[in-house]
Amino acid sequence: MNEYLRQTERALRLPRRQKREVLRDLREIFESAREHGESEEAVAERLGPPADYAAAVCATLRGKKRSGWALPSGLLALAAVCFAVVLAAQTSRLPGNVIGQADVMTQIRVAGGMDPMPLLLAAGALAAAGAAVLFALRLSRGRKEKS
Amino acid sequence: MDPRYVQQFKKGSLEMILLCLIGRGETYGYAILEELNRRSAVLGWAKEGTVYPILYRLQGAGLIQCRLAPAAANGGAKKLYALTEQGRETLRELLQFWDAYSACVGEFVSAFREKEESV
After folding, report:
1. What is the C-alpha to C-alpha distance for residues B59 and B63, in angstroms, rounded to an integer?
2. Are the beta carbons of A30 and B76 closer than 8 angstroms?
3. ipTM of this predicted complex?
4. What is the pLDDT of residue A99?
5. How confident is the model at residue A95 (pLDDT cuts 50, 70, 90)?
6. Who contacts A128 (Cβ-Cβ below 8 Å, separation ≥6)?
7. Which of A29, A43, A60 has the CB atom closest to B57's CB atom?
8. Which of A68, A75, A131, B116 could form an SS bridge with A138, CB 3.0 to 4.6 Å?
């Protein structure tokens, strides 16, 4: 049984939590069968090669995984928000050297402190780049699955 | 007869069979297998490699749920499966369709038989 479990574990391409669940079930399969007087060899034969069992399980469980579009779409949205904030700040901000051009009051801005704009710009760029890479990966995977 | 024809039928109906079986009351893996194998003459021998992937799929779809119960022997635990409310609802709809479907297929079958007998 342990050898069968070990080989199945090696062949299972699943997230750790799902893998643990599948292996727990597999242990129960062997133990239940033993309670009913079946030998481990008989169970192993019915299950087929560990790689086949793993493949059958993976085929169902992996279909449940997220489509792969969610993360790149989220990153793209994040990038858009970052750029939008930077753009909005740029247009509402007066040029730094404007003094006394206003009709009524003079607005003087004191420069200093941390300017969050470069940071936001960088975060936006990073998110956009990440989204682009993930989109490309997802697209190539889709093409592979189709062919 | 090409066994593939039969396999197609079984493939399509095994999920519904499992939902019916689990819907009768909480049950666990080996008991499910035994219950199926009582009808092996028609269904063929059930295997864990076929049944468990379907259980995973039904669970993933939220139609069945499971809980661990301590097993009598060897200190292990058995996973008990039960229908969820959504599963019961889906099964009802599925059975409704099944009735209509089998009646419809039956019409074709009996029309063919009648024709054959009249020849």
Report:
1. 6
2. no
3. 0.85
4. 62
5. low
6. A75, A76, A79
7. A60
8. A68
Instruction: Give the distance from CA B118 to its chain's centroid.
Output: 37
Distance in angstroms (rounded) separating the CA atoms of residues B77 and B75: 7
Using an 8 Å CB-CB cutoff, list residues of chain B that contact chain A. Answer: 28-30, 34, 45, 47-50, 52-54, 56-57, 60, 71, 73-74, 76-79
**Global confidence as pTM:** 0.67
Strand order in the sheet with B64-70: B27-28, B77-83, B64-70
- How do residues A38-62 score in pLDDT, each as one tens digit? 999 999 999 999 999 999 999 988 8
CB B87 within 8 A of CB B23: yes
Please report, for chain A, the start and end positions of each structural domain, with discontinuous segments joined by +.
2-63, 70-146
8 A C-beta contact, residue A109 and residue A94: yes
Domain-wise residue ranges, chain B:
3-118
**Distance, in angstroms, between A32 CA and closest chain B CA?**
6
- CA pair distance B27, A69, nearest whole angstrom: 37
Give the architecture (CATH level 2) of B3-118: Orthogonal Bundle (1.10)
Closest CA to A51 of A100, A7, A115, A109: A7
Encode B83-98: b = buried (16+ Cβ within 10 Å), e = exposed: beeebeebbeebeeee
Residue with tokens 């928000």: A81
Check residues A139 and A94 and name the one with the higher pLDDT: A139
Residue A145 in this model has a pLDDT that exceeds 60: no
Which chain A residues have any C-beta within 8 angstroms of a chain B C-beta? 22, 24-25, 27-29, 31-36, 43, 46-48, 52-53, 56-57, 59-61, 63-64
- Per-chain mean pLDDT for chain B: 92
